[in-house]
Design a protein that fits this description.
About 15% of the residues lie in helices and about 30% in strands. It has six helices and 13 strands.
């Protein structure tokens, strides 16, 4: 954490060094764009084929075939969720929150994509609709649907309080993935998340990660297009709306609803699931 009382004095040209212009590392115009018009047309006549209700302080897995849509909704009260995505046919390909953050920014909304891990590095899902897109960035620098936080976990909980808590999102996702796949190594496959509906940012003075009450209300939703066959995992965070704390049995918590929609057969005739990344993986050897 940066200190107000640094150990070293400022050099004479400190202000000049600080005044260097900002350069966007990955200009969004360089990314292959999703065909949002095609996706929207396909969505209009898509039919719901399944739904999964994620209980409060717990997690569930769900499957979404490539070319289908899925929606995460608040149903009973303000609640945030931690979302993991895996390639349903190869769980080693999973959501890469850090690269997604570098490509799209700290918080995601309509038109942004969730990218997969190396070596595949391809779109896994594209956000189609965000009923909280009106929120933008508030006066604290907070916004919703972040890819900067990790997930509440029992290891950090133990580090800070010494307690044993089993409903952190990391544990919830571990149990859900174990139940869905039967894999003994499920915990090693759980990864950093998209914090759905969570309102977060960095403090301007110390750059510390903060959370505040989510603006989500029943009926709000975040909807995606599945670019590849997906296995999803969603935890209804034990922090509820994260207005005060997480990893808690005290916060008011509510379920989250996942719905999967299938487009009509001919709706995506001109669409193909994105291939894995084209880098040859030789690394110059």
């Amino acid at each position: 954490m940066k200190s107000d009382n640094p150990d070293f004095p400022s050099p004479p040209d400190a202000n000049m060094r600080r005044s260097s212009p900002v350069v966007i590392a990955y200009p969004p115009g360089d990314l292959p764009p999703p065909d949002m018009v095609l996706y929207m047309q396909a969505r209009q006549r898509a039919s719901k084929v399944t739904e999964v209700l994620v209980p409060a302080r717990d997690a569930r897995c769900f499957s979404v075939p490539a070319g289908h849509f899925f929606r995460i909704s608040s149903v009973d009260g303000p609640q945030v969720g931690d979302l993991n995505l895996w390639n349903a046919n190869d769980l080693s390909e999973r959501f890469y929150s850090g690269k997604t953050r570098a490509l799209h920014g700290t918080h995601l909304s309509t038109g942004d994509r969730m990218w997969s891990s190396f070596p595949s590095l391809r779109p896994m899902a594209t956000i189609m609709a965000d009923s909280l897109d009106w929120y933008g960035f508030d006066s604290d620098g907070g916004s919703v649907h972040d890819v900067i936080g990790t997930r509440c976990d029992p290891y950090t909980h133990n580090l800070l309080s010494g307690g044993q808590y089993h409903h952190c999102c990391h544990s919830n996702l571990t149990r859900a993935l174990t139940d869905a796949t039967g894999r003994a190594d499920a915990e090693s496959l759980v990864h950093d998340v998209l914090n759905v509906f969570m309102c977060t940012g960095f403090t301007r003075d110390t750059g510390q990660y903060f959370m505040k009450a989510s603006p989500v209300r029943p009926g709000d939703h975040l909807e995606f297009f599945a670019e590849i066959d997906l296995l999803g995992g969603l935890s209804a965070c034990p922090g509820g709306d994260c207005s005060a704390e997480h990893s808690s049995d005290v916060a008011a918590c509510y379920p989250l609803l996942v719905e999967v929609f299938e487009p009509q057969t001919s709706a995506l005739d001109n669409w193909q699931s994105p291939p894995v990344n084209g880098y040859d993986r030789s690394h110059g050897r």
